[in-house]
Description:
Distance between the termini: 38 Å
Number of domains: 3
Radius of gyration: 22 Å
CATH architecture of the largest domain: 3-Layer(aba) Sandwich
Largest sheet: 6 strands, mixed
CATH topology of the largest domain: Rossmann fold
Number of strands: 21
CATH superfamily of the largest domain: ANL, N-terminal domain
Strand content: 15-25%
CATH class of the largest domain: Alpha Beta
Shape: globular
Helix content: 25-40%
Strand order of the largest sheet: 4-3-5-6-7-8
Amino acid sequence: MFEKHPEIQFLSREEIAQEQNKRLQQTIAYVAANSPYYKRIFAENNIDPSSIKTVADLQRIPVTTKQDLQLHNKDFFCVPMEQITDIVTTSGTMGDPVIIGLTKNDLDRLAYNEELTFRAAKLTTSDIIQEMTTIDRRFMAGLAYFLGAVELGAGVVRVGNGIPELQWDTINRVKPTVAMVVPSFLMKLIDYAEAHGIDYHNCSLKKAVCIGESLRNPDFSYTVLSQRIHDRWPELQLFTTYASTEMQTGFSECECGCGGHHQPELIVVEFLDENNQPVADDQPGEVTITSLGIEGVPLVRFKTGDVCYHHIEPCKCGRNTMRLSSVLGRKGQMIKLKGTTIFPSSISDVLDGMNGLAGYVIEVSTNDLGTDEVTVRVGTDNATEAFEKALKDQFRAKMRVAPKIVFETPDAIRSIQFPQMSRKPIKFIDLRKKTI
């Protein structure tokens, strides 16, 4: 079912569309025959699957939400469990984790997806990739990076997340050229190196392929965090990626640094408004995907909850694929603070630009008036009124409103950010009362 087509990114937009439509027809026929959930959707809405011939025709099919996937998880499986090779779950950031099963074919597709990610960053068989991310705990991404490195023919050393001492010991022993890493962890590597006399400016690492936190603003300029990384470690070339467990596909930057490239043989992407209608090319929309070539748990018109811009003009690298901006925010994480609409990323941008912080956690809850209440728990050894005022002044300057500030010890913040069961740093906790 899965077929490689790496040259598609460099074809004309018309040729890309033709290939996508062909693969889309195969996917619709597959889910119509094998997915209990989509069989029911087609029947309930009187949809003839064979009439879906183009990406535009997808608008006749209802969208699939995260809640649909949570409530009917098993009905999305298209193969019996005997054919499932790898079992993972979503992180559960926006609700209960969802089980995703991958066949051997799906793992091959996952490896190919990450090979394309690494090729976009100009990695070759001469590179050694140090994986500084979780590779266990039901996490798809860590395995994907390993498989992608194998598919590329590069070396890979699986260190896992955290433990700066072990990371630097591995760098000194193995001499990797690339880090697969969460951007904020690079700051911890720098701090550790400076505290222990490690000359990181002249170490073997030359590139970092980053996950989990955006490196760029919607205009492709560096975020506050990535600018700080660049200022302190200018020799390290940064690449940002965007993906999710549900889509089993990633969007990755090339060396031009102007958005994550769409891999059109692996996924169809729509950008929808509040009414599930396509947005204009210059408007942000919710990333909505239809997976191509997946056997285990393919999804049709799945709303990711992530709001992004998209760009359709050709890239200087020669690719003619759509490019995805950084995530503006998650629909479910939108906050209304004192009449101002913000996303957690806006709060993070302010905090990432402040010195004297040893981590932070953003909490949003519902107050007695039924409106959003935001508390920022800050790890610091400088818990003074002057520091609190400086923080609030920065918030008001950048966002017009300031959240409640609570100072904690650095150890207390670390315990919140890295609980035993977590596979990614936790920086946002939503305690709001849910309405269904």
